[in-house]
Amino acid sequence: MKILERVSPPGGIATKYLQETNDGFVVEATYIRRPEKHTLCVSTQVGCPIGCRFCASGRRSKGSLYQRSLTSAEMVEECCNIAQEMDFAAHCRPLTFAFMGEGEPFLNFDECLKAFYALAAMSWPVPMQLAVSTSGIRPDLIRRLGEITFSVRLKLHVSLHGPSDDIRFQIMPVTQPISEIVAAVRAYRERCGRPVVWNYVLCAGVNDRLEHAEQIVRLLGPGWHVKFTRLNPAVGSPFRPTPRERVEQFRRILEEGGLSAAYTETDESGIQAGCGQLSYHYARGGRHGDT
Ligand code: SF4
Q1: Domain with 40 in it
Q2: Does 259 reside within a domain?
Q3: What are the pLDDT digits (tens) for 235-263?
Q4: Cβ < 6 A, ligand 1 pocket
Q5: What whole-number distance in Å separates Cα of residue 266 and Cα of residue 226?
Q6: Active site residues
Q7: Does the residue 122 lie in any domain?
Q8: What is the pTM of this model?
């Protein structure tokens, strides 16, 4: 893997990296600098077979959803190439390698596990932890992950994006019944006790009605953490961001239902900050900002 390009808007907290595999595929990673932590969000596949309708990864390369999975060695190299550029001495804060860029890690499960072990075995100048996200496509592997131990902290993120199968299906055309995903995540947490985050992208008129927040409360029950964002529209996305005033109402219903709810502002600094968006422009022969 070699770094091809860096996109870093002045004053922003995120830098996007494009990296090229030895056989000529391009994937992206995002490095986010916050006062309390470094997060490096890396890709696990070239493109993504899940094809979420708000995400550029599913539409890259002129409709070809997916090219191939990355090997564990490529993922480790993806992390190390960027980590070499970080100024750990100036910013002695924890580092998270988040397997949450392009691709569905649970469709490349064994290679991701090997990469986790390899990264955990390396020595880092700051405390290191791991995060991995899934659309829920393999509930059986969510359960299996709960049975595996790691020497570093691992946080699991699960894409919720809708309180019912029909709403999720509008957004995520390839997924599993939400009841099976919730059951698997409950079993995961009971087994290993590691932290779980449910991610929810608010799309205007699709999954952002207040009754949807009430449905989430009934679906999950108290004690879970939901992290939601307003949609950061990708090129060609059929969805629009939720109005800002809706966000607080949505959050209040979740908290009144006993869930903890955190809202994260999307990056509107100019880089295409949703997963797969920079490499989507690259695959089309364009660059950042060619919208
Ligand atoms: S949001 Fe994630 S799972 Fe969905 S298409 Fe994009 S990369 Fe794949």
Answers
A1: 2-208+270-283
A2: no
A3: 567 888 899 889 999 999 999 999 999 98
A4: 48, 50-52, 55, 57-58, 102-104, 135, 275-276
A5: 16
A6: 28, 275
A7: yes
A8: 0.90
